[in-house]
Write a structure and sequence with these properties.
5-stranded parallel sheet, elongated, two-stranded antiparallel sheet
């Protein structure tokens, strides 16, 4: 039974990885799903044909403890990421920072469009709030994200003089570091606009960089990609811990 479950889970992971690859997200994270699927299938086949029967008892116990530990870590990180989905009432922000995501020749990715539409709605409801659009140009993008995002917001009815484009950053840490140089981190009330699955990590990084009065403003995300996005965030949190970003 366990062998069947492992093989089935592996096949689902491979198919999901292929599905994610077709989304043209600009990320190679789909490879993780493919590798995970191959590993699960190999474990299932090994279990089915008794490849692990000869392993010493202490090694089997160690592997079991490792798997329990990894499962516990995933559960904790998943709960942490989902805690960022809750919306907070933020009426008096001085500035919002819209974090960049992929743009394509035909327009913004779904992820970025949701961030921009959330930012536009907030800025229309709060006419005294300023905005920074933050994002550089990736290898597969036609222009810097920050510049495109500013134009999108202007077309959405936001005055250009309320928006500053930061167009050099390449990742979330740089988004917040470069944007922070334009702000008074001690006194400005700042909102970070990003998708719900990305809020908690972004706020952790921002606080590490010295942001004091901080609020996360979660934009929606597409449910079909949520499993991929949350898993990717969990790995990114561990990476940022390792390199000292949080």
């Amino acid at each position: 039974m366990l062998a069947f479950i492992l093989i089935a889970a592996g096949l689902l992971s491979v198919f999901y990885g292929i599905f994610i690859a077709t989304a043209r997200s600009g990320s190679l994270f789909f490879i993780v799903w493919l590798l995970l699927g191959v590993m699960l299938i190999a474990l299932g086949i090994g279990k089915r044909y008794g490849w692990f029967a000869g392993l010493p008892a202490f090694l089997k116990k160690s592997l079991f403890i490792l798997l329990i530990g990894l499962a516990s870590l995933v559960i904790f990180l998943t709960a942490f990421v989902f805690s960022g989905f809750k919306k907070h009432e933020s009426k008096d922000l001085d500035v919002i920072i819209v974090l960049g995501a992929q743009i394509r020749p035909d327009g913004p990715s779904h992820v970025l469009k949701m961030r921009l539409d959330t930012a536009a709605s907030y800025l229309k409801a709060h006419p005294d709030t300023r905005c920074i659009t933050s994002g550089g140009q990736g290898f597969n993008e036609p222009e810097p994200e920050g510049d495109f995002m500013k134009r999108y917001l202007v077309r959405s009815g936001i005055s250009a003089d309320r928006i500053v484009a930061e167009s050099e950053s390449k990742n979330t840490s740089e988004n917040l570091r470069f944007s922070g140089k334009l702000l008074d981190l001690e006194n400005n009330k700042i909102g970070i606009v990003t998708n719900n699955f990305h809020v908690k990590r972004s706020c952790l990084i921002a606080r590490h960089l010295g942001y004091k009065n901080l609020t996360g403003l979660p934009a929606p995300s597409r449910p079909v990609y949520l499993l991929n996005n949350v898993f990717r965030e969990e790995i990114a949190i561990l990476k940022d811990l390792a390199v000292g970003n949080i």
